[in-house]
Amino acid sequence: MATGKVIGSPHRRHRAEEFKKFLIKLGREVPQGLDVRLVLDNCAVHETPAF
């Protein structure tokens, strides 16, 4: 929040596959050692067995 940088990943669909791609993108773009908190809604995609 201090820098105001937003990491987004817009997709046409909202499936577990797209969510996984977003998490991978976060892993690449967030500096190592930085503590990150994700706030998620209760969408079923976020609760699949893959996660």
Percent helix among the residues?
25-40%
One letter per element, helices H and strands E, the order comes to H
Number of domains: 1
What do the pLDDT scores average to?
Answer: 82
| Alpha-beta content class | mainly alpha
Distance between the termini: 26 Å
Strand portion: under 5%
Shape annotation: globular
The major pleated sheet works out as: none
Identify low-pLDDT runs: none
Query: What's the total number of strands?
Result: 0
Number of helical elements: 1
Radius of gyration: 12 Å
Please explain how this structure is put together.
- The protein is mainly α and 51 residues long.
- The protein has one domain.
- 27% of the residues lie in helices and 0% in strands.
- It is built from one helix and no strands.
- It has one helix spanning 16-29.
- The longest helix has 14 residues, at 16-29.
- The N and C termini lie far apart (26 Å).
- The model has no long low-confidence stretch (mean pLDDT 82).
Summary, kept brief:
Helix content is 27%, strand content 0%. The chain has 51 residues and is mostly helical.
Please specify the SSE layout and strand pairing.
Elements (H helix, E strand, L loop, with lengths): L15 H14 L22
Descriptive tags:
51 residues, globular, 0% strand, mainly alpha, single chain
